[in-house]
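hiii so um. not sure if this is the right channel but i have a protein structure encoded as tokens and i wanna go backwards to a sequence. like what aa goes where. can anyone help
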């Protein structure tokens, strides 16, 4: 079969983006795209705050020089402002009401956005740490596979053989060789509940760790929604829908009090021996930007959380169901080779006992990053290597099977064996003595 056309398509697909990762596209959205968006928003907010005028205040009362007004603006910026409707009278001795309506988020927006970006990247760091427990770098295997997908036929064949040998050695290394009650119990528990036994010998450490990282991404999205709600002082988790409804129905901030453009600030100033309190009106131009940013982030966070939940269940079902794993391998084996009827049992053992969960996971990540063609070639090469060793070696000597343990020797059996050995040695000595004294012996005639 001529694969030139598919090779060109695959080369375009791989060369279009050379970034290799042992994650799917939903994970890339979580740890790469979302932090980039948050850092971008944080940069815009910080530039508007520290390069331009973030606040400008005015009072009907005389405050003196411009330096005093600058001092009052800085004080209002530090001490937090509160929203009070412009058409409502501000009663006296309303300190508690002012505290309840204070806005604590205005000057901290860029820092909290940067913190949110760090939180989105933390699961990625955990995944890099957990994936290294498998014994090799999965990223290196994927990068090598991507390189093999873009070279000529001869070089690609050599690289495929190297990859197949490396994967074979890696999977043989994590086979459950040890036999003991504890190890047999762990193997049995891993077969029934693989998600609760995350060790290399169970063949589920990569898949289990990856599913845990998926759950971390989901929990992080929930945490982000809570952070935004508490930081902005919103009532209820569905404040984004309320904000969007207000924008569509043209209910502005003067009626809702959400992201107000004008706030008030009470400043006490000593003037001519008296403690005077000025109520300032301050313009908050950054809230126009904050409103749009957080509305987008609210919908974005809900969207990626839903996609991550879907991705988690998709990976959990496809990675744990035997039929799904067999279908995946069968699809690529049919592309490059054919399985005879007498090899079906061997193919099942190839999927269930040799590749297992982690081997299928590595091949899926190669397929996701390098394409179907190179994955089919690697699967074919690994299958041929497995089949040749399976047919050459006797069943008891296969690396897949645990070695036979020698029979346990008790003290009584050891004593009996020692007695039998001494009797055998005495019998052999007597036989030699009789042979020496027998007539016709060469040594006797020599004498």
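sure thing!! here u go:
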């Amino acid at each position: 079969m001529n694969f030139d056309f598919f090779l060109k398509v695959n080369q375009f697909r791989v060369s279009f983006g050379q970034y290799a990762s042992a994650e799917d596209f939903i994970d890339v959205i979580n740890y790469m795209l979302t932090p980039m968006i948050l850092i971008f928003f944080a940069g815009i907010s910080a530039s508007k705050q520290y390069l331009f005028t973030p606040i400008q205040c005015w009072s009907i009362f005389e405050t003196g020089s411009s330096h005093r007004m600058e001092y009052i603006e800085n004080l209002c910026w530090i001490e937090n402002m509160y929203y009070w409707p412009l058409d409502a009278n501000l009663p006296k001795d309303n300190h508690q009401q002012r505290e309840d309506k204070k806005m604590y988020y205005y000057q901290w927006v860029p820092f909290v956005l940067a913190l949110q970006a760090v939180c989105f990247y933390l699961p990625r760091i955990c995944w890099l740490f957990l994936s290294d427990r498998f014994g090799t770098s999965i990223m290196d295997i994927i990068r090598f596979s991507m390189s093999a997908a873009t070279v000529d036929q001869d070089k690609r064949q050599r690289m495929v053989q190297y990859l197949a040998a490396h994967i074979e050695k890696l999977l043989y290394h994590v086979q459950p060789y040890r036999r003991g009650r504890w190890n047999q119990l762990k193997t049995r528990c891993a077969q029934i509940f693989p998600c609760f036994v995350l060790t290399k010998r169970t063949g589920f450490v990569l898949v289990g760790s990856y599913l845990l990282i998926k759950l971390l991404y989901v929990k992080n999205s929930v945490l982000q929604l809570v952070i935004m709600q508490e930081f902005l002082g919103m009532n209820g988790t569905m404040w984004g829908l309320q904000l969007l409804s207000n924008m569509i129905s043209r209910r502005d901030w003067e009626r809702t009090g959400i992201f107000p453009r004008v706030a008030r600030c009470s400043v006490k100033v000593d003037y001519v021996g008296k403690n005077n309190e000025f109520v300032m009106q301050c313009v908050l131009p950054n809230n126009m930007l904050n409103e749009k940013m957080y509305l987008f982030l609210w919908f974005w966070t809900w969207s990626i959380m839903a996609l991550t939940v879907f991705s988690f269940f998709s990976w959990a079902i496809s990675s744990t169901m035997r039929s799904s794993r067999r279908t995946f391998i069968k699809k690529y084996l049919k592309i490059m080779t054919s399985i005879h009827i007498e090899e079906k049992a061997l193919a099942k053992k190839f999927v269930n006992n040799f590749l297992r969960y982690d081997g299928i996971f590595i091949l899926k990540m190669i397929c996701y990053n390098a394409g179907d063609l190179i994955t089919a070639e690697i699967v074919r090469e690994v299958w041929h290597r497995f089949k040749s060793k399976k047919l050459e070696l006797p069943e008891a000597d296969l690396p897949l099977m645990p070695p036979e343990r020698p029979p346990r020797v008790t003290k009584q059996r050891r004593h009996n064996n020692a007695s039998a050995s001494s009797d055998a040695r005495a019998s052999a000595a007597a036989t030699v003595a009789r042979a020496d004294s027998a007539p016709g012996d060469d040594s006797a005639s020599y004498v």
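oh and The first strand starts at residue 56 and ends at 58.
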